[in-house]
Amino acid sequence: MTYEDSTPPLLVGSAPQVSGVITVGGRTPSLSMMIQDDGPLSGLNIAAIEWGDGQRDQLTVTPTAWIPAAPVKVDSGGHIFTSLGSFTPALVLTDLAGNATRTSLGTITVKAAPKAPKRISPVAISGDPTVGSTLTCSATFSGDPTTISYGWFRNDRSVKVGTDAGLTLRAPNRMGVGGSR
Questions:
Q1: Which pairs count as long-range contacts for 115-119, CB under 8 Å and 24+ apart, including other chains?
Q2: Rounded alpha-carbon distances, angstroms, from residue 163 to 2, 92, 114
Q3: Confidence class of residue 4 from pLDDT cuts 50, 70 and 90?
Q4: Tens of pLDDT along 72-95?
Q5: pTM for the whole thing?
Q6: Would you say residue 30 has pLDDT above 50?
Q7: Are 5 and 99 in contact (CB under 8 A)?
Q8: DSSP per-residue codes, 42-91
């Protein structure tokens, strides 16, 4: 069967955008879109995403049966970038007659993963170690930690865990394990 096909495949609706900033090794979101053409939507290279980093993903066209001009769904599982830079992925649609369209999907900036903070000074405890007083823990870190967690212990038992660097001292519980007042 021969089809007259002089128009390229079309993206139905807006192009999905994958713009943003990710770190090396991060995956872009999955994409799903609808395409249509006036010729059969089957065969090689009907739909692909060129990620801009030299990688090209062939997309699965579903259903495999063709109904003229009926939209069909294509899906991408996303992409993992392995190098730094700015990339402009594009959806490339090519029909069996060789008609093609190229649609930008935005710009992705790939940056280095942040380095883990490293303690560069000893941990210091300051304050008056008497009941009712507050002790404070401090240390200096390289990098830019977003959260520092502290754990305070008495006789190998946790008395406070969290992001507060201070501990107000209370009289020890002398009732023993399992006791109550």
A1: 115/142, 115/143, 116/143, 117/141, 117/142, 117/143, 117/144, 117/145, 118/142, 118/143
A2: 70, 49, 21
A3: low
A4: 777 788 899 999 999 999 998 887
A5: 0.59
A6: yes
A7: yes
A8: -STTSEEEE-SSS-EEEPEEE-SS--TT--EEEEE---B--S-EEE--EE
